[in-house]
């Protein structure tokens, strides 16, 4: 017999009962179990793998809490005013079914994302839980230590703390929100936003970080004229003032919207005053002329802050635009080639899918409402 053929026959397993019976007793057990394990392995390999694609998953929110959520949350409750702009940026405006924002409080937001008009607007920090249940809310975004957290969790509605207090946390909150949404559109928008954020803020800080203290104008940010309230240190306002090359004159006060006297502001005597865009018009002749004693007023260096999808000076995604606009106000000679208006038009196109016109950009930069809203 051909030697090669003999080797092949030796390698072939017994394929019949007669061959199995003819085999030596010591080999029968090996052949039986070898064949059994082979068939078991093949059978197990053919079984469908368990699929968890539609099951819940766990994320860690900005407070550090671990929250179990759906793979693709589709019906959102937005319970923090500032966070809604993030959802619009991340292409999820159409998922918002309940919100604390409204066309009257955020007119530019609703003009840029009219789909929000389909959402139910509610008042107060704690919503009617039955309203959320009735509208099928499967995920709710809240601010830090929101009083709504407990009642929502009691109804088994996942609660995500999406709040942030500075620009680094803003980026982390954007990443968290993109992870919650779990869509390619959200992650693509996030990637583009981080790139734009770093480019705009980085281009400003490349210049302003080198400025000595004496070259930094003293800036006061007023959030309300009646009552008179300002923003101090450890705020995102203090951060954009510093990034833009200024110094916050209210550095001895900590926190947002702190009430002060006009006498205190006169003692600070800021070089530049920036007033929130949503406040009433500034009257330099008010308070028996005390405002006119200030250097900023005498030099006509009082500015109204831009207000867009969200007030640029507050806790919103338009933070890079705020830094650029402020830098141009504080140091016009250093930023002659940078145009906040052009940057705003591009930003709105890239992140809000909105073709902002030149006239609309002018209104936003002047802290004015959309034209149709201003006539109501």
CATH class of the largest domain: Alpha Beta
Termini separation comes to 104 Å
- Which parts are unreliable, with pLDDT below 50 for 5 consecutive residues or more? 1-23, 40-52
Record field, number of beta strands: 13
The percent range for strand residues is: 5-15%
Largest sheet: 6 strands, mixed
| Shape field | globular
What structural category arises from helix and sheet content? alpha/beta
Number of domains: 2
CATH H-level superfamily title of the largest domain: Nitrogenase molybdenum iron protein domain
What fold name stands as the CATH topology of the largest domain?
A: Rossmann fold
Report on the architecture of this protein:
The structure is a single chain. The chain has 376 residues and is of the alpha/beta class. The protein folds into 2 domains: 57-183, Nitrogenase molybdenum iron protein domain (Rossmann fold), CATH 3.40.50; 211-374, Rossmann fold. Helix content is 42%, strand content 12%. It contains 16 helices and 13 strands. It has helices spanning 3-11, 17-22, 25-46, 84-89, 107-112, 129-134, 149-154, 167-181, 184-208, 236-243, 262-268, 295-298, 319-330, 340-352, 358-365, 371-374; strands at 57-60, 66-69, 76-78, 96-99, 120-121, 139-142, 159-161, 218-225, 228-230, 247-248, 258-259, 272-275, 302-304. The strands form 3 sheets. Strands 8, 9, 10, 11, 12 and 13 form a 6-stranded mixed sheet that branches. Strand 4 (96-99), helix 5 and strand 5 (120-121) form a beta-alpha-beta unit. It is globular.
